[in-house]
Amino acid sequence: MLTTMKVCLYCQNKNNEDLKQCERCGMELPIKQPQSKKAKLTFFTKAFWLIVIFCIIMVIYLPR
Question: In whole angstroms, what is the distance from residue 51 CA to residue 6 CA?
């Protein structure tokens, strides 16, 4: 049986998903976990290249 864990945003302790407060520090656990660093990096990379391509097209397209 695979159980998912919620990570406390304050102390980074891993808790069972059914808990509402952290076992270690007692802080309220988030309802939705924040995005992982990999997801943020992937989004940033795609946005960066989209902007680069747009700038290159505008340099070629716009009159001088």
Answer: 35
Q: Tens of pLDDT along 31-47?
A: 877 777 888 899 999 99
How far, in Å, CA of 50 to CA of 42, rounded? 12
CA dist 33 and 26 (Å) reads 17
**Are 13 and 25 within 8 A, CB to CB?**
yes
In the chain, where the domains are located: 1-33, 39-64
